[in-house]
Specification:
Layout (H helix, E strand, L loop, with lengths): L4 E5 L11 H12 L5 E10 L4 E3 L15 H5 L8 H13 L5 E3 L6 H10 L7 E6 L5 H9 L9 E7 L16 H15 L3 H5 L1 H4 L3 H4 L10 H7 L7 E9 L3 E8 L2
Parallel strand pairs: 1-6, 2-5, 2-6, 3-4
Antiparallel strand pairs: 1-8, 7-8
Helix pairs in contact: 5-10
Pfam families: LigB (PF02900)
Keywords: Dioxygenase, Metal-binding, Oxidoreductase, Zinc
Cofactor: Zn(2+)
């Protein structure tokens, strides 16, 4: 069975406690997709110049945020790791001549566990978390994702977790989405649906309101898109499954790539 790869916005950590259209979408998505043997997730909250791969047998839960309700810090997502998937990822990176660093004891950051808690609440599917490198070019990020494309044929779900419009300095209490955020998302959607990778690789120069949507201090939230796309390089299809906004412009979107 060949699974798609996904880009999933993780929004605010409060999604873990919320019940809204997006959280219900994620819950339904986990039920509707074929159950994966394992999950490999590239998280915006693990931004490292060295490609890193988790090697834990069982994951701790990182509460890598502050100022939230106490209930947030009581949440746990004790998903198992997967030695076999970690080994296979290492072999694929070796074949792609990409050096990588096995990391023990880090735990799952909220970019990973908040969305997985909604999609797979039983925490019984093995998870391997991978870092992103926001300093690499989009083409390099895409190429790293493409190294893992064969995992999809082995019932492994590859996810990039981040946010296409994620500028915490511009959020507001507006009930309506900001026009500039919508315009940026729609430009990205047009390129994705036509798989125009060269346009997307130059999004920072060509997309409207790119500086607002992807500020220089928040590029790591956009980069998981390219890792997820790359994982479907052999089946270049893109479908937007969900789009909404919180706080005026915090984009909650999910894209499916491949079959």
């Amino acid at each position: 069975m060949t699974l798609p790869s996904l880009f999933v916005a993780h929004g605010s950590p409060m999604l873990a406690l919320e019940d809204n259209g997006y959280t219900r979408f994620l819950e339904n998505l986990g039920r509707e997709l074929p159950t994966p043997e394992a999950i490999a997730v590239f998280s915006a909250h693990w931004d490292s110049p060295d490609q890193s791969v988790s090697v834990d047998e069982s994951h701790g839960t990182m509460h890598d945020f502050y100022g939230f309700p106490e209930a947030m810090y009581e949440l746990r997502y004790p998903a198992p790791g997967s030695a076999s998937l970690t080994q296979q990822i290492g072999q694929l990176f070796d074949a792609g001549n990409l050096s990588y660093q096995p990391v023990l004891g880090r735990g799952l950051d909220h970019g990973a566990w908040v969305i997985l808690q909604k999609m797979y609440p039983d925490a019984n599917i093995p998870v391997v978390e991978l870092s992103v490198d926001s300093r690499r070019s989009p083409a390099e990020q895409y190429a790293i994702g493409a190294m893992l494309k064969e995992l999809r044929q082995q019932n492994v779900l590859v996810i990039g977790s981040g946010g296409l419009v994620h500028n915490l300095r511009m959020i507001s209490q507006s009930g309506e989405p900001d026009a500039w955020a919508v315009e940026f998302d729609e430009w990205i959607a047009k390129q994705l649906e036509s798989w125009k990778v060269n346009e997307l690789f130059d999004y920072d120069k060509k997309a409207p309101y790119a500086r607002q949507a992807v500020p220089s201090y928040g590029v790591e939230h956009f980069t998981p898109l390219f890792y997820a796309m790359g994982a479907a390089d052999d089946d270049r299809k893109a479908k937007r499954l969900f789009q909404a906004y919180q706080y005026g412009n915090l984009s909650l979107n999910c894209w499916m790539f491949g079959s």
